[in-house]
Structures are given as C-alpha cells and as structure tokens.
Write a structure and sequence with these properties.
Blueprint: E1 3-7, E2 10-13, E3 18-25, E4 33-39, E5 46-52, E6 58-60, E7 68-73, E8 78-83, E9 92-99, E10 115-116, E11 120-125
Parallel strand pairs: 2-11
Antiparallel strand pairs: 1-3, 3-8, 4-5, 4-9, 5-6, 7-8, 9-10, 9-11
Length: 126
C-alpha cells in the first residue's frame, strides 16, 4: 500500500521560506513521478511542480518558476518542495502525490496521480 506523508508546513511571514517534505513508502518508486499540488479555500486544486524519481527531471507551474524548487532524495524516498519569497496568495494546503508507472512523464493534471498524502497547511501572513 502506497503511503505519502507530508510535513514542514506552518505559519510564515511574507517574504519568508519553507521547505516541505513528503516521505513515500509502500513500493520502489523508480518508474514514477511525484507531484506537489495546493488547494486554497474555495479554489480548485492547483498544480505546483513535479519530478521524475529516476531522472530527476522537473516541471513547474509557470507562475511559480523561480520561487519554488522541487527535489528528491532517492535513498530516503523523500521529495522536497523549497518555497522562497512566499506571498499571502501562497496560503493553501499542500499535497504530494504519486503518478505510478508512467515512465517518468511529468504531468500537471491531478487526475493523473494515483495516491495522495493528507496535506500540510501553509499560511503566509502579510
């Protein structure tokens, strides 16, 4: 059974940084893609970034390029989301997800992802 557990969220002031972590377990993830999404109150779930476990290739939402960085530690089955220069509009619940057996294809559609974590709240104050 695949499990994803996020951590690292919390309150932060505008301009600050946070690093989210997502520990994955339940299988060997070498053919899969990991993604980060976020959902603010009253809004749809939004793609943030994705990374291939095998190659390390990355893909970002255009609006977040330059501020957010996704990375992985294969040995620890952990994916990270480094968030810098945070803004109040970044406030949301952040979810990690896995797209299984896709050969490392990087997708932004949440319907493509098979398992999700429980989410971690990020609150950015002005």
């Amino acid at each position: 059974q695949v499990q994803l557990v996020e951590s690292g969220g919390g309150p932060v002031q505008a301009g600050g940084s946070l690093r989210l972590s997502c520990v994955a377990s339940g299988r060997t993830f070498n053919r899969d893609t990991m993604g980060w999404f976020r959902q603010a109150p009253g809004k749809e779930r939004e793609f943030v970034a994705a990374i291939s476990w095998r190659s390390g290739s990355t893909y970002y939402a255009d609006s977040l390029k330059g501020r957010f960085t996704i990375s992985r530690d294969n040995a620890k089955s952990t994916v990270f989301l480094q968030m810098n220069s945070l803004k109040p509009e970044d406030t949301a619940v952040y979810y990690c997800a896995v797209d299984l057996n896709n050969g490392g294809v990087l997708r932004s559609s949440y319907g493509s992802y098979d398992y999700w974590g429980q989410g971690t709240q990020v609150t950015v104050s002005s």
